[in-house]
Amino acid sequence: MYKSQNSRTNTAVRRLMTEYKQLINEAPDGISAGPIDEDNFFEWECLIQGPEDTPFEGGVFPATLTFPKDYPLSPPTMKFTCDMFHPNVYKDGTVCISILHAPGDDPNMYESASERWSPIQSVEKILISVMSMLAEPNDESGANIDACKVWRNDRAEYNRIVKANVRKTLGL
Amino acid sequence: MDEISDPSDWTGTRLPSLLMLDSSLRCRICKDFFKSPFMTECTHTFCSLCIRKCIASTPTSEAACCPICRAPVLEIRLRRNQVVEDLVEWFENGRAAIMTVAKEEPLIMNGPVASAATERTSSSETRGRKRRRDTVDSSTSLTPEPRDNGLRRTTRISSRKVSYEEKLDIGIENDDEADTCDPDEKSDVNSANAQRDSSFILLDDDDKAENLVPCPVCNVVMTPQEVQVHIDDCIKQQEAKEAQANQSALSKSNRPLRTLQSQPLHQVTRKPLQRLPKLQYDLFNDTKLRSKLAELGLPTNGSRTQLQQRHSEWVSLWNANIDSNNPKTKRELLRDLNDWESNVARYAVQKVSADDLAAWSKTHSNDFDALIARAKKDVHKKLDNGQNQGTSSSAESVVQTQQRQDSVPAEIKKIDSIDETSEGQMDYKRDFLADTLITPPPVSSDAIM
């Protein structure tokens, strides 16, 4: 098990351990997350189920969460490690969503402060937000412009690409 | 991870309702029990250190706000929440014991299940005793069920259900079936219920030994009945003790100087223990800031950003420590600061320097100069080589060079034209681009052929 070098000040590790424990004890539907290696609580792997009644349905999408050393004062970053065609996910997989942006860090200048990161947010809240982002893209803040265009102009094509990616994540 | 406690510990125990109490006594920032809880003007409570650090970490361009409701928060308007502090202390003291009691039932329940095989064949007397144990369980359950004396059989089942809440497993179901098949059952049930109706259960010595429970407050082991009577007195005693201890702790924090006077650190004896003000760092030059840190007995090495962050962190640590009922010594605080600096601060320093592009390009200007110089040298060498080869023998290379020069994109031509006006300044840009064009990877040179 993880031995903290200094349990005195390492609030970030303590908090991440608490969140991990809570996620184990009360696993929310469609979400699973935990540290890749229990010696390093700052790198997590998570799995998100595609929400129902969307083209993502049936898929299971792996992603990594990278926490800063001053977590929870600063938000983690999230990156899908599978092919993800979505208006709010950069082509390299990085998720662009307001809950992951600290106040004062607003790449697209569209977010209201109330949606942004605050130290009371948690891994669970992030993953739930990402799930609802999959269901309802926000094309005002496009991270992947191609996906934005296809989503806006050719929904059938968008659904086709997403479904192809779902099959890919399932190894079909 | 075992040392980490969290509200979900209560799920699956006999007291799942304590989950909400447990989570209400925790800071939403660190998810731990409140340490020196402070309340904001919007009536939200956090640990003193958590909210102070949160306010300190807010970028200067933004107003600090409550992490929960985002109402503006001013550090000087924070107020201590003494009731919450006391609640936390007492809950934390009793938590382990309550948890033991809350988790105990599965053990008692497993007892009869595990030994069911032997008990089923044994005399009705043992069975009776076992049942009495069950009734004891339900009478000590903290979620009592209203009992209807007229419907004894159903009462018994329902009270069992309550006491075995969420824990019914196949073993118990079987046990129940066995009970109903037992010919001795009825009389046993009646006698058990009669005992309960008299609202006091007499236990023989065996039962006593098996049913002892620790008092959740003082942990002294006794029968559940005794606990019921004892617990009120015990809590009163405990409270009196706590109040005393608390008062002495409070008087300590009210006159904090005295507690730290015994410290050998000369800084402490020289400076009275009072809140540190925040600094407007813009008003301090490096020298002044360094002397400010030296005054506080802090390390004065590092960049300006480091100095600022170190000071800001120290102010948070120091002021939160003053709020604590059991303040740490300055030596411990300095160790905390050092831990913070070696574990957390590195990130913050990097982040700031990456943002500060001007400073970054300044520190790396030597690298840039070296790169430009090398690129210039390379491009001149290449051009010279190409011309030499062209005049001497290889017609191919002449074609190549010419093609390459022809294929110089419009942008470079543009740069050329700029060069005419401001030569020298833009020079290196062309050199860079020309360099990349003149030394293409082997694949593209084949393509040109």
Q: Helices and strands in order, then pairings?
A:
The complex is a heterodimer of chains A (172) and B (449).
Chain A: H1 11-25, E1 31-37, E2 40-49, E3 60-66, E4 77-80, H2 123-135, H3 145-153, H4 155-169
Antiparallel strand pairs in A: 1-2, 2-3, 3-4
Helix pairs in contact in A: 3-4
Chain B: H1 18-24, E1 37-39, E2 45-47, H2 48-57, E3 79-80, H3 82-114, H4 116-121, H5 124-140, H6 152-163, H7 170-181, H8 185-197, H9 205-210, E4 213-214, E5 221-222, H10 224-254, H11 256-261, H12 266-270, H13 286-295, H14 304-323, H15 330-355, H16 357-363, H17 365-392, H18 395-406, H19 410-421, H20 427-438, H21 442-448
Antiparallel strand pairs in B: 1-2, 1-3, 4-5
The best one-word shape of chain A is globular
CATH structural architecture of chain A: Roll
> What's the end-to-end separation of chain A, in Å?
36 Å
What are the segments of chain B in which pLDDT stays under 50 over at least 5 consecutive residues? 108-208, 252-271, 347-354, 391-449
How does the major sheet of chain A shape up?
4 strands, antiparallel
Number of helices of chain A: 4
The best one-word shape of chain B is elongated
- Arrangement of strands in the largest sheet of chain B: 2-1-3
DSSP helix fraction of chain B: 55-70%
Please identify which CATH superfamily of chain A we are dealing with.
Answer: Ubiquitin Conjugating Enzyme
Order of helices and strands of chain B: HEEHEHHHHHHHEEHHHHHHHHHHHH
Number of strands of chain B: 5
Mean pLDDT of chain B: 67
